[in-house]
Automatic annotation (TrEMBL):
The keyword Transcription regulation does not apply. GO terms for molecular function: heme binding; iron ion binding; monooxygenase activity; oxidoreductase activity, acting on paired donors, with incorporation or reduction of molecular oxygen. It comes from the Eukaryota. The chain crosses the membrane at residues 6-27. Keywords: Iron, Membrane, Metal-binding, Transmembrane, Transmembrane helix. The keyword Cell membrane does not apply. This is Uncharacterized protein. Belongs to the cytochrome P450 family. It comes from Eragrostis curvula. It holds the Pfam family p450.
Amino acid sequence: MDHGVYYYLLSLLPLLYYFLTFCKASFRSCRHGLRLPPGPWQLPVIGSLHHLLGVLPHRALRDLSLRYGPLMFLKFGEVPVVVASTPDAAKELMKTHDAVFAARTLSLTKKIITKNGSGIAWAPYGDHWPQLRKICIMELLSAKRVQSLSSKREEEATRLVEEISSAGTRYVNLSNLLNIYVADATVHGIMGYRFKERDTLMHYVYVDEGCSGPFRRGSTDSNNGTAVGSRLTA
């Protein structure tokens, strides 16, 4: 066989893979008979991500909602997403049917960092989460407990105000200072003293936020995320 023909056929393999993936996804949707909301057309592998190109994805979603309605269906890679863009649609998801949509989807990064959502902030809705909620209410959020920690919160709030006041006419990164206040007040209340390694902790928090953004490939490719996750957590 001529080498040119061989390389030509080899170059068609990615297109064949994309086509088969698209057919598989379409067949799966038809087989399950899902009554999905309307949404923009999709491409194999990336789904609807090409509709969100630009630096402001939320505005792209707004423009799509004007065309497809207050409730629309997209796919971020292989992850199905339903977008509610009006108060009435959001009420249906967040209040009327809140139990159905209570569990949040964890990205690959979040699964690794939170140990598959073992803490209350990322725990899936089920038997484990109500137990965590009960412990928090009884041990951390009861009226007596909140009142006992008021002096520590006031002390950290005073530090925050003094930090802002000492800046004078210089610009102040208020978001950073508020993050520090929350971290200091939380650790002060739990441990009874200020956390000396707070700057190191905040550094890793910012690294976590950077690694677990909304459009990472591990978050939009379920097959890839599962395979890579099994290796990282082994």
